[in-house]
Amino acid sequence: MSLAFNKNGFPVNIGDRCSIIGVIQAVSPSVSGSNSNVTVLPPLTASTFICSVQDINTPEGTSCGPASGNQVTVGNDCTVSGLVTAITSNTNTGIVGTNTALLTVQLFRSGLSITVPSGACNSDNV
Fold this sequence. Notes:
The protein is mostly beta strands. It has one domain (4-123). It contains no helices and 10 strands.
């Protein structure tokens, strides 16, 4: 039995690729450049994570991603992609196999490792 389920209710496993959804909370420095850090708030938690601006894809503009000239703007939706390296059941609920299980995800572009609820992700299992 999987310890984690993605936002669509499908199991998430170690080694799955995942796409984390969230809202941009801050950009530092305030003008996004290739060295900027972005603070993202995923759903199902009050905890943010920090990643590189290069990890962020944004839906506005002609195509996704800052490389296409889209602005990384506070308040906008975004996605961040990586590989699930660990899964921990959320001890706050005491329930195994929920969408609040915590995923440790290594981001594809920056290589940073972050922790997010599994329900904030799409994964290989749809």
